[in-house]
Amino acid sequence: MESEPKKAAPKQKKSAAVTVEQIQEDRLTQLANEFWTDAALKENKPFNAQIVEDVYQKELMGTDFSTKRIMMLEFSRYLENYLWQQCPTYCQLLQLSMKNFENEFLLGRFSSRLQGNGVTLREQTILLIFLNHCFNSLEVDLIRGQVQELVALPIWVNLLPGRREDLFKKNPKYRKFYNVMLKKDAKLPEKAREQTQFQRQFLSNLFATYLEVLHSIPEK
Full-prediction pTM beyond 0.70? Predict the structure, then answer.
């Protein structure tokens, strides 16, 4: 009898794990060693905004938001040691939109970016994923305190007057709370009032943006 041909041994898959040597040689590690490790921070080097721009463009946008690059940023403590400490108002808000950073969420540093001009559809998608993570992380006090402002009674300002009136008839006590809110709004400084309105209109504007994108897709 003829012997059966031997089956070729299955090829072993190369490990996708990153080695210590690769981490040490990585560009982000080198940047961290120079600017935002604990040792580097003791040197009190001036903040370099161009580094933030380069990290965003090359390591996030340039890699289509690679999970490995995001993990490298987290491993190097880029957010808490450099971005968060050095540029709380400047920082690229999209860099907070990874699930790894969901516990660092602050709505005011995120929502304006989502609706900003010149933001690509890919960026908006990443930010929406982040927003979804936030709504799924309400057990975290910091996140819950921010997210609940998006879905509270004040967002009724976006309803049509007739629809809002119908809801008030079914829930009379809400009318009282709503009127008190409007009186407080009238006493706010202009800047504070604009910020308040922005938060209340956030979800409504987000839905409008979604519909604009949806209607922009050509029918086949």
Answer: no
